[in-house]
Write a structure and sequence with these properties.
single chain; 57 residues; two-stranded antiparallel ribbon; 0% helix; elongated
């Protein structure tokens, strides 16, 4: 996990999310709460295979 991101973060909707751990994140849509991924500031951290600097064309 990045050094500047705490282990758990409170989402704008008040849901406690866990960046970089989508399987246990309460905002993943599979828990009691609605999915928060679309509006999550840490969305891409859950998909490390996505590299915005990559030029695979």
């Amino acid at each position: 996990m990045s050094k500047n991101i705490s282990k758990k973060v409170i989402d704008i909707n008040g849901v406690e999310i866990t960046p970089e751990e989508p399987a246990v994140c309460l905002g993943n849509g599979e828990q009691v709460f609605e999915c928060c991924c679309d509006e999550c500031d840490y969305f891409l951290l859950c998909f490390p295979e996505f590299d915005p600097k990559s030029k695979d064309d």
